[in-house]
Specification:
Helix content of chain B: 10-25%
Distance between the termini of chain A: 78 Å
Strand content of chain B: 15-25%
Helix content of chain A: over 70%
Number of strands of chain A: 0
Order of helices and strands of chain B: HEEEEHEEHEEHEEEE
Shape of chain A: globular
Oligomer: heterodimer
Order of helices and strands of chain A: HHHHHHHHHHHHHHHHHHHHHH
Chain lengths: ~475, ~220
């Protein structure tokens, strides 16, 4: 009897736990379903939301201003709802609404409105992620990416929220969602968000209230450039943190770890190769009549270039060495050639021109810029990669003592293969921990096979000398 | 062996790049967009009530000598400006008002996104001229199609409501449209997009990319 009571109690406890576990998710999903149903069933809601999307899509401040202003005394509420809407759903920078608010309501009233509504949006994103949980978000942004963000969060703590929040033109949704998945407490998140948001809100509202026309466009352009620079710095921080971790593990195991690298050669190679990918995608898009007539294909080029470049930076195993660059350049050129057809001297240049809105500049100017980029970039990739390989080979041959002092040493792809034998012979410790060595040494068999023909020739003598040194030691 | 092969590839690639660069420089110098005799009224709509015509200036976009487009004339700075054959120096609203000023009556009967719908309304003759052109060139001659001979039947569609709402700058379209001020009744809405007719600029008739042309709309 006592045992039966215990079992029943356990069952009740289990039921309660299940309900507690799913209650918030069920409520949230119900709210989402109701919202979708209202959107589908009520024409006025349908039209209003479509209008908002069209306005966002056009990215026109004056249109946005007119859209909010037409709601009269409800304009502030509409603006706040828009800010929350963009926080949750639209991958758009909040500064778009911040500047509009400043223009419409005056700088300080707009500032308060933007601050309060963006805080509400951030809080909502945080709780959506916390309620829906890790499993859903992992499916969206992959487990690896999530782990990487968490490592960064752990290292930087609330500071990273503060940094991201200082830049209101960065789409903050992802950071808020990610923060909701970590163990970070809401109070800390909210405080960091508020602290970061307030000065930025004041500055952008004040400046935004005064700007008009071309000055506004230039201001927005500069903000985007600044945001990009900060983003690169943040990525670099994530990368450096990971590298230090790997280096420490290698040192512990007594092996050599040569960084995969954010050296100038790797970054430049990725930047160069992603330009080809961006252009190939954009040129293929011009083949679709409906797409080309509705979307600025130039933005696809620049946007694709930027996104693919940033993505490639996240994949440290992708090193874009010399051989990869040659093959990639040839392949993408063929795609561009086929996609452009007889308009090869028009389509890529027109795409590049369209993307930056220099519609009055001659196409020939853009052809010249593209060709110069291709030629100079190619030379730089070859020269820098060659230097990188030599340094990496020398570093491996020198042993762990030399490598440990340089956490961001030049990376090695093919040189690692070239110097692999030398390193193994020079470092008996590596034999005791072969797995670690193999893991950390970049493995790119297809690339090494080729690149390394010259690399082998170049590095053999150096590594042989280094081998001699280490043997004598 | 492999090293020498790589060097050869490098030399050949660089040679090709240099050749392309030189060709590009050549085309750069030949495709200058500036016109030494730029008219004074380049950013206004000129109204001629007696002839029932209006005129304004636009720039040729050479991109659409080889790419399909349904956008014939779009106001500079607006969303569709870079997707059109001619980029006008004036807004679509100014063109609409000018057409009304010379007695034009907008049709305003186009419905949103209704595939195949054809515009009606007052006929408009569209002609272009530029420095060195052989007089006024009818719009029909300035366009071609990759799958046939395009027809032209421009009408004063109106569409001011949607022009303001979408703010994309469309002044003249090569098929019927609910946004453009003047649209082509020869084709239904969506005919270019679905490939019924693939219209683009006729580089044999039109001047080179970046040239300023004078566009004239005359009410019939």
């Amino acid at each position: 009897m006592g045992k039966q009571e215990k079992l029943t109690a356990e069952g009740n406890a289990g039921q309660k736990t299940f309900w507690q576990r799913w209650k918030s998710k069920i409520i949230l999903i119900t709210i989402v379903i109701v919202c979708i149903a209202v959107y589908m069933a009520v024409p006025s809601v349908h039209e209003a939301i479509n209008n908002v999307i069209v306005t966002f899509k056009n990215g026109d401040f004056d249109q946005m201003k007119a859209f909010i202003a037409k709601y009269g005394k409800w304009a502030m509420l509409v603006s706040a709802l828009l800010m929350i809407f963009q926080s949750i759903m639209a991958p758009l920078p909040a500064f778009f609404i911040t500047l509009t608010n400043a223009n419409l309501f005056g700088w300080w009233q707009g500032c308060i409105l933007s601050f309060v509504s963006s805080m509400a949006g951030a809080a909502l994103c945080f709780y959506i992620a916390r309620i829906l949980g890790r499993d859903v978000v992992e499916k969206i942004c992959t487990k690896g990416a999530l782990n990487q963000i968490e490592v960064f969060f752990e290292k930087q703590g609330k500071k990273c929220i503060l940094i991201a929040r200082l830049l209101p033109f960065i789409s903050f949704d992802i950071v808020s969602y990610a923060a909701g998945l970590t163990a970070m407490d809401f109070g800390g998140f909210f405080l960091a968000t508020g602290l970061g948001q307030l000065p930025a809100c004041i500055v952008y509202s004040y400046v935004g209230g005064m700007l008009t026309g071309g000055a506004k466009k230039m201001f927005v352009g500069l903000l985007c450039l600044f945001a990009l620079a900060i983003l690169v710095v943040l990525l670099r921080q994530v990368y450096t943190a990971n590298e230090k971790k790997k280096q420490a593990a290698a040192e512990k195991a007594g092996t050599v770890y040569v960084s995969d690298g954010m050296s100038a050669a790797v970054v430049l190679s990725k930047f160069y190769n992603s330009a080809f990918w961006g252009m190939a995608i954009a040129v293929l898009c011009t083949r679709s009549i409906s797409l080309a007539m509705r979307v600025n294909v130039g933005w696809i080029f620049y946007g694709g270039w930027l996104i693919l470049f940033l993505l490639s930076l996240m994949f440290s195993s992708l090193k874009c060495g010399t051989r990869f660059t040659v093959i990639n350049a040839v392949f993408c050129s063929l795609v561009i050639l086929v996609g452009s057809g007889s308009a090869i001297m028009v389509t890529p240049a027109a795409t590049a021109r369209m993307g930056i809105g220099m519609v009055d500049a001659p196409l020939g100017l853009f052809n010249t810029i593209i060709m110069a980029f291709v030629a100079v970039g190619f030379l730089l990739v070859i020269v820098l990669n060659s230097r990188r390989k030599k340094k990496a080979a020398a570093m491996i041959a020198a042993g762990p003592a030399a490598s440990s002092g340089t956490s961001s040493a030049p990376s090695s792809d093919t040189a690692a293969d070239a110097a692999d034998q030398a390193a193994k012979e020079a470092l008996p410790a590596s034999e005791t921990a072969p797995d670690e060595q193999l893991k950390e040494q970049p493995s790119e068999p297809s690339e090494s096979a080729s690149d390394d023909a010259p690399a082998e020739g170049e590095t053999t003598s150096e590594t042989a000398a280094a081998e001699g040194d280490s043997a004598s030691k | 062996m492999k090293s020498s092969l790589l060097k050869k590839i490098l030399v050949v690639s660089l040679g090709a790049v240099m050749a392309f660069s030189l060709a590009a420089c050549g085309s750069s110098s030949s495709s200058s967009s500036s016109d030494s005799s730029t008219p004074k009224n380049v950013k206004t709509v000129t109204v001629n009530k007696a002839k029932k015509s209006i005129s304004f200036y636009a720039t040729v976009n050479g991109t659409y000598f080889t790419q399909v487009t349904r956008h014939y004339i779009v106001a500079k700075g607006k969303a569709n400006a870079d997707k059109s054959l001619l980029r006008a120096n004036v807004s679509e609203i100014k063109v609409y008002n000018a057409l009304k000023k010379i007695g034009g009556k907008p049709w305003d009967g186009m419905k949103v996104e209704q595939k195949g719908q054809k515009t009606e309304g007052q006929k408009v003759a569209v002609t272009l001229s530029w420095k060195g052109s052989d007089g006024e060139i009818p719009a029909a001659k300035t366009i071609k199609a990759s799958n046939g001979t395009p027809k032209v039947d421009f009408r004063f569609s109106g569409n001011l409501k949607y022009a303001k709402k979408y703010n994309v700058g469309c002044i003249a379209c090569l098929d019927s449209c609910y946004v453009g001020i003047v649209t082509n009744a020869a084709y239904g809405y969506g005919d270019v997009e679905n490939g019924t007719i693939k219209t683009m600029g006729n580089s044999r008739v039109l001047p080179k990319d970046g040239t300023l042309v004078k566009v004239t709309f005359t009410l019939k």
